[in-house]
Amino acid sequence: MTADDHIVFIVDDDERIREALGELLDSHGMRAAAFESAGDYVRAEKPDVPACLILDIELPDINGLDLQRQIADGDHPPIVFITGHGDIPSSVRAIKRGAVDFLTKPFSDADLMAAVHAAIAEDREKRAERAERDALRQHYLDLTPREREVLPLVVSGLLNKQAAAELGISEVTLQIHRRNVMQKMAAASLADLVRIAEKLEIPITHSRRVGGN
To answer: How far is CA 54 from the centre of its chain?
Structure first.
């Protein structure tokens, strides 16, 4: 991990905490950006790299747990909560909403760094998954309207003659469309195409009918 391929955001209204965390992260070769309020963090432009958000619970403008809830639907980095007034209900709520850890001050440098590394690794994995889905969506958009009709029939397990009958086309034509779908979706096998369809959440409305048309 280099300082250019990630960033750690620090949101804490205590300047001493911000400085101490910044120095700790710097000593581990990690890039950091610090903010004293949730509003400052939300408004700031953020680099498109794997990240972690170290977030205090008590902030001058909004509670950290409320901020977690508000940004839950966006592509926000994994959160490591820090607080001087921790309680079990708050920690449970934070973890249930996806926080990586909930640390009560004073916490050890080792505990914080372990949480930060885990958060960045999680964000890196999520970003890779998003990139894969985006590429698959683009492949899907490259399909013709007929090929988009063929895809769910193929992954549902229908025989070629059954899928062809479903669409009112010949079996030979169905096989051509099926081959094009496999190529355009970069699927190495039927099992691979099924996995791709699941990632794209393509609805499967048919099931294989033994002895069908």
So the answer is: 18
